[in-house]
Write a structure and sequence with these properties.
mainly beta; 7-stranded mixed sheet; 4-stranded antiparallel sheet; about 0% helix; globular
Length: about 120
Amino acid sequence: VQLQASGGGTVQAGGSLRLSCAASGLTFSSYTMGWFRQAPGKEREFVASISYIITYYAEFVKGRFTISRDNARNTVYLQLNSLKPEDTAVYYCAAERGRVLSTPDYWGQGTLVTVSS
């Protein structure tokens, strides 16, 4: 199984980015997909997840980030809007078989998002 994350970069506060995670080697539609992030010196934290139709978001990203998936392309996306400097982190794609994302079965390699003030 491979989860290939991409789309990170450096943006100014208030800007936007779209992260993508292409999955291979698994039955994509059977997995809940999601994103975590880890800021420098902090623990990894949950950002968002999407099962077949249900989405969950961390409180700190509600209204700013949107998660979506394309089962035909085996890809999950995370649209990041209204970015803040505190959103700076490495963003990791994750997959867990079933309806929730609590203890991921697989992790991607991470993509760095840097938000400048």
